[in-house]
Design brief:
By secondary structure, this protein is an alpha/beta fold. 41% of the residues lie in helices and 16% in strands. It has helices spanning 8-20, 35-48, 58-68, 73-81, 91-117, 122-131, 140-143, 161-167, 184-195, 210-220, 225-231, 244-251, 272-287, 319-322, and strands at 173-178, 201-205, 235-238, 255-260, 291-298, 325-333, 336-344, 351-359, 363-366. A hairpin with a 6-residue loop joins strand 7 (336-344) and strand 8 (351-359).
Amino acid sequence: MKVFPLSKELEQEILAALISGVASSDAVTAEELSAQGKAVFRAVALLREQTPAGPLAPRAVLLAATDVLGASRSEIGAYLSGLAPVESSWAPEIIQRVRDKQTLVELINAAGKQLQEGTLDLGILGGFLQRESAGPLESVSDRIAGGLPDPPQGHPLVSLPRLTHETGGLYGLWVIGGMPKVGKSTLAWQIALDVGQTLPVLFYDYENGFAVLMNRTATIYRGDHEALAQATTRIYHADSIRSLDRDLAVVGSPALVVVDSIQKLPSSIEHKRQGLDRWMHRFEALKKRGISVLLVSELGRAFYGSDAYIGGYKETGEIEYTADTGIQLIGDRDGIAELHVVANRHRRFRGFLTNLVRKRDWLWKEQDES
């Protein structure tokens, strides 16, 4: 792991802030400092054991660095004489400069590690920048001084009104699970068509392929090419998610990202579960940018034929912790499947919701609909 030294100016500002008591020692590491800076830093750490808060006398720092730690008196004396006292009002600016520098170092180290492994994940690298993009620290009282923020609004699924009512609509991270061939992809594409009437949808399809998906969609629209084209003007289909960052830069926010299925996402064979968990963390971060995510997942073989259960999704335990809404399909006997809600973070309902009935083979309708 590379460590990059601080500039002389920034080093002096930080150490002056440490001595003045307006910054804590975790703002910097000794490895980033010059030889004299290391001596002063270690002297401050030693004195803080007896004086945890408040300013330190420069003479005390000098004595600790020289008489206790053995540094040169002339060098440390000259160094300390160049440090200007720091007022508490300067601390936020100094700390932000340190964080900016630390973020840059983390970006460089993370990119170097990825290149050594033969991959470059811009989404993970971008996470370092998003982490530091927050505004100034404010109390909750100050933030709501002008009124409460609007509550999160889920996107209504016109073709699935009962599911919309019980979940509040598509919002955050949704997961559709079930055994193979139960109709998960059909439901995911149907939701994409619903959302795509008003929002852009990025559909990453590892299961069916564009030609198959369009053939099924033509059945839904009874072969009406114009109606199909109109329904998909905001939907973008791709066979690989590797273009995710570039695609999101094009469509912006809000938007919906659909992945069919999560078990097909790129990850190493040796560390498949860790790779999928990392994808889940990345998808969770998209929520903060106003981007909803819909994932299709297989169930573990141990859960074939069993009751719907949030822990039944295959290969990644992170689903049960990160999913806002978890759906599982059971059955699909004679064109009918049970729809169960196994996770519902924003509403109280859980359990069996309704039977889904296939219409024209590739469209689900809730059983109580005409």
